[in-house]
Amino acid sequence: MPRPLRPIDDGLIYHVINRGNNRQNVFHKEADFKAFLAALGELKERKPFQLYGYCLLDNHFHLLVRPTGDATISRIMQSLLVSHTQRYHRHYRSGGHVWQGRFKSPVIQNDEHLLAVAVTAPERRREAGETAQHGGAECEGPAQRRRPV
Question: What is 52-106 written as a DSSP string?
Fold first, then answer.
């Protein structure tokens, strides 16, 4: 049975989630978090999108993304995940899968849903006890600050 198509429409905001293969860590140190965010910033110039918030944990991430122009969520994430995987393998001299399967990207339904996602992702980080590791996992969004990304 084929996998379901992702919804595509102008103005949709997606809650993008992906985790490390076998739930293994993909961010091992502060430089890994920074490299992922740098790749995200560089990607915005090639495939335009708005980033409303993010939370990077040791073994997974959450992004709030709205594609703009001709960019689609699938192309944006393909570019980001390939870029991160290549850097990961170069840096750690490894091979194989870094990410576990296809990323998830439920569409944000309304303002309440957006706020719930923006608040819940950082709470999960705190519940996981990741605030002390690597100087703290990276989270930014409406619940953490008040300016656009």
Answer: EEEEE-SSEEEEEEEE-TT--HHHHHHHHHHHHHHHHHHHHT--S--B-SSPB-P
Beta-bridge partners for 61: 18, 56
Q: What is the pLDDT of residues 84-123, one digit of tens each?
A: 999 999 999 999 999 998 999 999 888 888 888 877 665 6
Is the pLDDT confidence value at 25 over 90?
A: yes
Residue pair 135/30 in contact by the 8 Å Cβ criterion: yes
Q: Select 14-140's CATH number: 3.40.1350.10, 2.30.30.40, 3.30.70.1290, 3.30.710.10.
A: 3.30.70.1290
In the block, tokens 């944990």 appear at 57
pTM for the model: 0.79
Answer yes or no: are the C-beta atoms of 64 and 141 closer than 8 Å.
yes
Q: Please report, for the chain, the start and end positions of each structural domain, with discontinuous segments joined by +.
A: 14-140
